């Protein structure tokens, strides 16, 4: 309330003038005041905005909310925020400190001593606030953490004292000699800070995993899993910490207990996030995670949401962008069951999101092993995917079309694929995909549209070795569209990969139907070496006539 704020504010001002523990918030030295052409009190008030806001926050947080016992106060404070909120607050504060340390190093290089000092005071306040906030909501931190907290606070105080001395002298030689000490102190602070954050995050991951493993309550387990998922969204480093602490093992235990069936979707979503790192993949292999995922996908009693999240884990662990999937030997043993379940999920998907997850898993599997394409052909997957594309409520984004055309491109290496494409009106779909454009201008969506154009051209090039497919493509006016994509950079969003794919498709169709090209197109886009045609098109200026 207002009286509380006023009391804290009064204490802050009194402490500043008495010199109690907050010497860094005093006004600039008196001997330098004659250089400032503004009222001294006004200048001091402006400096306070930068130098003491965090300090005020520390004081407010350390004051009791009521006159009850300490235990009651702790209960009130801890109940205000969930563990997830507290961790987010901690991570936000850590990000601010990290950014400030980087900026201090930049200002130090330019000898901006006044800015270095004010930013150092700010970092000092943020560090104290972060430690105070963390100790408010945790009660079982380790002795090692307390040691690093003390080391970090002491170093920050030493750093502030250094920079304060720097702004009190103007002798270049002294400043030069102090600069190396300041740089060394800054490096040490960064190291202590990094080690403390590592310990804190490891400690919190351990606590959450302990809750998940030991609790029989669905509510407590759900809360812990949601907090763990929130941590995984902060980057690969946190995923590594969770994986090293046994996160994958603990989460798969949940997926093997019927009493937690209602938690399977969020558990699997968290697993998918952790498995973006190598440590998570190794753990998945050790606990027979592939077999568990196959059981979930093939069990018809599970909800569609559970099947979709299991598909997301499959999509993650088979991603062609990962370099550490070779050890997934158990995947090959269960691949046919998994592919069959994923095709069924695509066919029965009730929403675009479910279809996207299932088709993404299938697309990645076709990169993972060529046998997958033969299984898909036997399952009539081509027909199912082409039919889904005609439903705009299911295949409703460029991302979904990207997955479908990836599967078609990888399957098109099989000779039997051509007849399936003809029967399912697939050439018409590929032609439509050559016109794929982003409606929002979002960079991720634009990139997805480029991939759709490129892969549809690649699929046409591969399938056009079959005369029937080539004839259908010519009748649908694929050649003029390919020429347009080659000659007009804006049509392909200046993408070189789309250009190469279109040149390859055009050359294949030109062999099958040479009458479809004008002489100038033939001379520039077909007759030269591919690299020469590519250079010609990339240097070509658009005509606006």
Automatic annotation (TrEMBL):
<dbReference type="InterPro" id="IPR000225">
    <property type="entry name" value="Armadillo"/>
</dbReference>
<dbReference type="InterPro" id="IPR045789">
    <property type="entry name" value="Insc_C"/>
</dbReference>
<dbReference type="GO" id="GO:0045179">
    <property type="term" value="C:apical cortex"/>
</dbReference>
<dbReference type="Pfam" id="PF19427">
    <property type="entry name" value="Insc_C"/>
</dbReference>
<dbReference type="InterPro" id="IPR016024">
    <property type="entry name" value="ARM-type_fold"/>
</dbReference>
<dbReference type="Pfam" id="PF16748">
    <property type="entry name" value="INSC_LBD"/>
</dbReference>
<feature type="domain" description="Protein inscuteable homologue LGN-binding">
    <location>
        <begin position="36"/>
        <end position="80"/>
    </location>
</feature>
<dbReference type="InterPro" id="IPR039921">
    <property type="entry name" value="Inscuteable"/>
</dbReference>
<dbReference type="InterPro" id="IPR031938">
    <property type="entry name" value="INSC_LBD"/>
</dbReference>
<dbReference type="GO" id="GO:0009786">
    <property type="term" value="P:regulation of asymmetric cell division"/>
</dbReference>
<dbReference type="GO" id="GO:0008093">
    <property type="term" value="F:cytoskeletal anchor activity"/>
</dbReference>
<dbReference type="InterPro" id="IPR038205">
    <property type="entry name" value="INSC_LBD_sf"/>
</dbReference>
<feature type="domain" description="Protein inscuteable homologue C-terminal">
    <location>
        <begin position="93"/>
        <end position="545"/>
    </location>
</feature>
<dbReference type="GO" id="GO:0008356">
    <property type="term" value="P:asymmetric cell division"/>
</dbReference>
<dbReference type="InterPro" id="IPR011989">
    <property type="entry name" value="ARM-like"/>
</dbReference>
<protein>
    <submittedName>
        <fullName>INSC protein</fullName>
    </submittedName>
</protein>
<dbReference type="GO" id="GO:0000132">
    <property type="term" value="P:establishment of mitotic spindle orientation"/>
</dbReference>
<dbReference type="GO" id="GO:0045176">
    <property type="term" value="P:apical protein localization"/>
</dbReference>
